[in-house]
Amino acid sequence: MSILQTLKSRFASALSSLTEDTAPLLDMIRSSQDPKFGDFQANCAMPLAKQLGRSPRDIAAEIVENLDVSDFCETPEIAGPGFINLRLRDKWIAEHVSRIAGDDRLGVTSVATPRHVVVDFSSPNVAKPMHVGHLRSSVIGDAICRTLRFAGHRVTSDNHIGDWGTQFGMIIYGYRNFVDAAAYSKDQVGELARLYKLVNQLSDYHAAKSGLPELRSQLTQRQTELDQLTSGSDTADKKAKKKLKTQRKAAEETRSAIKSAEARVAHVDADATLAGQANAHSDIARLARKETSKLHAGDEHNQRLWDEFLPACLAALNQIYSRLDVHFDLTLGESYYNPMLADVVSDLTSKGLATDSDGATCVFIEGNNAPFIVQKSDGAYTYATTDLATIQYRLKELNADEIVYVVDKRQSEHFNLLFKTCELWGFGDVKCQHVSFGTVMGDDGKPFKTRSGDNVELGSLIDEAIARARTVVDENDDRREQPALSPDERARVSQIVGTGGIKYADLHHNRDSDYVFDWGKMLATTGDTATYMQYAYARICGIFRELNVDRQNIASGETAVLLTCPEERALALQLTQFDYAVDAVLADYRPNQLTSWLFDTAGKFSAFYAHCSVKNAESTELRQSRLILCDLMARALSTGLSLLGIETADVM
Ligand code: ARG
Predict the structure, then answer these.
(1) Distance set, CA 254 to CA 202, 212, 241 (Å)
(2) pLDDT per residue over 617-640, tens digit each?
């Protein structure tokens, strides 16, 4: 149990005679930001006093009276209007940190009741190269798996790849009509990606072209309405003003949609080859969809092409995963569930959950406008049907207690309907959670793209990260009197700095937010970056090398840690709270809880190292104690980073 949890449970008893609803009050117990107010602060007396109509200081006094924390805290202090300040006993911190120093798991006990958690993450649609949009799911999902495992849960990581969707019809159509045989035999995946892009572009050309007249008349109409509004109404009227604003915005949107469609059409028209292909394939979108339906209906030729394409696509994905050190226990793509879909629909129908709506089969969930479509009117099953079959499989075959979906937040409506349908279906026992995340943005404030407007391929992004990291590593090593790294070692270190940099930059943001991709910040050697933590780790290893002390023999757990100055105490206290950080990550699957703990801890270590000399400590005991803190700090960094999928090196 973390210190905070222990405190909360003691407060729960202390509060029980005052109120029944202790939970919100317990949430008000926090670490203090300022040591002046002790190590922890409980601000619960004020709201409770209001509730009971009594004076907050009286309530605080009564809570303190009831509170039994003398085994690890000094006498609690009541400050100001009724804050309760708690200061841990130095002796207790020293003993606690000594114990943790002797523990491989840094004080994190394995959970008493392990759950079997299926983590569905990464899950790209194959036949297209992985791009930066796939980074977040891969990195966040991997960190979640690692942290769950560390905590003692059983984890099955499952890459639910999209290997059965419309993109296959597109590449089948592309392959039949446009394949460059030489390119295909040289670089199969590259050629398939080109075909996918081409078919997409040609389909889009026709859609854009045929949609333009409608858009133009829409604009004319909007313009007329706007003219009427501006001339006719009282512009001082608030309501009219608001309407005018909405209308202007709508007209602006239509105008930019027209501009974008015109540009896409012009782009194809200006290229003789593309224009020729577009002309010759005027019905391409429908025909590509037909190839998908044929595949789903068991067409032998299409199935043969699918069998031919898939292994190469998977190999390309695996190459990226191995560079990112991301691993899956299962890769059961959408195709795996295809044989189960008909049963899913008939089961839902026979239970009266799914009903016919204009020829489609849908589940209607109360309070939701959109239906959950499980079979389209043309007979095709959907993404939803597959996800229902997947839950059934994970529950019945894998015996999952919990399923975590690490997927873009734009899919939250889908997961909302999915989970509700599952509950109605009778699968309410398994706990399902959508761990959603925002978009990676460019510095122009739009989703991160290459200059030509294409998606940024993940492979080239990793290449660039490693190349940039190499500059950092070279500069750092060249600055030394005697460079410490061989070219091979520099390459290895650049790899961990580069990939670690990308991962950390992603993980340290609140996952729900969008964030701007910024190379400079990502690989900075100071600040909240992996690079900073990795160098901090190597620097501590350097201290041991310099003093010629073997780290293996340092932390026996028996040697006492001495707390002689505030910085030393603050670091020790912080190091006792690794378990809290791990709990905080798992409470709502937020890896940034761990990055912020790491960053705080690294800051406390800097202060400690600046104020408390290890080498010239006043006594052998103190030197030994400080070495223990250094070693524990190094292990906190390497263990913490490893839970995020980030490596460290002893020399950098
Ligand atoms: N392949 C989907 C996409 O790229 C993500 C799948 C997420 N997992 C799931 N079980 N729906 O949008």
Answers:
(1) 22, 10, 20
(2) 999 999 999 999 999 999 999 999
Half-sphere exposure of 289 (CA within 13 A, CB side): 6
Q: Say how many domains are in the chain.
A: 3
Q: What does the pLDDT look like over 385-429, one tens digit per residue? A: 999 999 999 999 999 999 999 999 999 999 999 999 999 999 988
Looking at 308, 337, 358, which one is the last position of a domain? 308
In a domain, 333, yes or no: yes
pTM: 0.91
Distance (Å) from CA 350 to ligand 1 centroid: 27
The answer to whether 648 and 637 have CB atoms below 8 angstroms apart is: yes
Answer yes or no: do 178 and 298 share one domain: yes
Same domain, 138 and 171: no
Q: Given ligand 1 and candidates 118, 120, 123, which is best to mutate, with the most ligand atoms within 8 Å of its CB?
A: 123
Q: Is the minimum distance from the CB of 387 to ligand 1 under 6 angstroms?
A: yes
Q: Is 120 in the pocket of ligand 1 (CB under 6 A)?
A: yes
How far CA 527 is from CA of 309, 316, 463, 634, in Å, comes to 45, 34, 23, 18
Atom of ligand 1 nearest to the CA of 387: 10
Q: 120 C-alpha vs ligand 1 centroid, how far in Å?
A: 8
C-beta 534 within 6 A of ligand 1: no
Given 88, 108, 140, the domain boundary residue is 88
How many angstroms does the Cα of residue 538 sit away from the middle of ligand 1? 39
Q: Return d(Cα 243, Cα 14) in angstroms, integer.
A: 56
pLDDT for 88 equals 96
Q: How confident is the model at residue 452 (pLDDT cuts 50, 70, 90)?
A: confident
290 and 206 in one domain?
yes
- The domain in which residue 43 lies consists of 3-88
Could you give the CA distance from residue 448 to residue 131 in angstroms, rounded to a whole number? 10
Same structural domain, 186 and 156: no
pLDDT score for 557: 58
56-91 pLDDT tens trace: 999 999 999 999 999 999 999 999 999 999 999 999
